[in-house]
Amino acid sequence: MKGSHSAISSQRRNSGAAGLLFPLLGACLWAAVVGYKPVIIVHGLFDSSGDFKNLQRFINESHPGTNVTVIDLFDRSASLQPMWKQVEGFKAAIYPIMQNAADGVHFICYSQGGLVCRGILSTLSDHNVHSFISLSSPQAGQYGDTDYLRYLFPQFVKSNLYHLCYTSIGQRISICNYWNDPHHRDLYVNSSDYLALLNSERPNPNSTEWKKNFLKIKKLVLIGGPDDGVITPWQSSQFGFYDDNETVVEMQQQDLYLRDVFGLKTLAARGDLIVCAVPGVEHVMWHSNETVFHMCMEKWLV
């Protein structure tokens, strides 16, 4: 009897330990699965969702169990659709993901996609985006003779593209929505249906509301670098841009920063504006470069 009594006691002890262990294991697994906020990736000009496999892998290796969604819309040539049309399309696809994420989501928005995401964040009053990571995006506009420009508009160079971009027909092409010719500032301000409105560079009756919406983000991470080769000037990825002499004026000296038109200065004062400049990265490599991921993105995706 004594032997069977001790066997029963031992069994009870083991089942008690298991009773403690299994919920603990379950809690750990649960934390691994739901511990990280979902990440939403928005692609750029001429990209598609398949171009972001490396970035998805980096995220899942560093933050296992993260739900990563690359929005499969406006791929390839469809990325030339007008920016407001893209904002509405991406918004409709992203909103259900936000609604299912009680703790919020993160945005990684590449190249032209960074401007799409700004449109979403400005116009969506109940978004729950924590980190907005702008990955080599022409946030202050684009003005350069790049391979993209030669491919799209072979008969134009940067100095005369305004003849097309600042017309009602031109504004139906995404790149013209953020084409910012520093030598034709008035034309840009009066003609740009997208960037000039987002930047409140022309009167915008929604500017107060858009600023309030944008400032709901917890972090703004601006990633870019001097060897990009496409974003021109490269400092546009960090809200720097040319003056009329084509001298780059850094973000902190830009009127849109000084007047805090949509919240950059407020974010900086809050300590929530992060600038990450990485040399040696070409434009098409930002989302596949592991060093960029670890240096500039990883810590903001929790």
Automatic annotation (TrEMBL):
EC numbers: 3.1.2.2
Family statement drawn from the similarity comment of this UniProt entry: Belongs to the palmitoyl-protein thioesterase family.
Source lineage: Eukaryota, Metazoa, Chordata, Craniata, Vertebrata
Keyword terms: Glycoprotein, Hydrolase, Lysosome, Signal
Name of the protein: palmitoyl-CoA hydrolase
Residue ranges of the TM segments: none
Alphabetical list of InterPro entries matching this protein: AB_hydrolase_fold (IPR029058)
Subcellular location: Lysosome
Signal peptide: none
Cited function: Catalyzes the cleavage of thioester bonds from S-palmitoyl-CoA or S-palmitoyl-N-acetylcysteamine (unbranched structures) but does not have activity against palmitoylcysteine or palmitoylated proteins, branched structures or bulky head groups. Conversely, hydrolyzes both long and short chain fatty acyl-CoA substrate.
Record SUPFAM superfamilies: alpha/beta-Hydrolases
Catalytic reactions of this protein: S-hexadecanoyl-N-acetylcysteamine + H2O = N-acetylcysteamine + hexadecanoate + H(+)
GO cellular component annotations of the record: lysosome
Pfam families: Palm_thioest (PF02089)
Record PANTHER family: LYSOSOMAL THIOESTERASE PPT2 PRECURSOR, PALMITOYL-PROTEIN THIOESTERASE/DOLICHYLDIPHOSPHATASE 1
Superkingdom, natural source: Eukaryota
GO molecular-function terms, A-Z: palmitoyl hydrolase activity; thiolester hydrolase activity
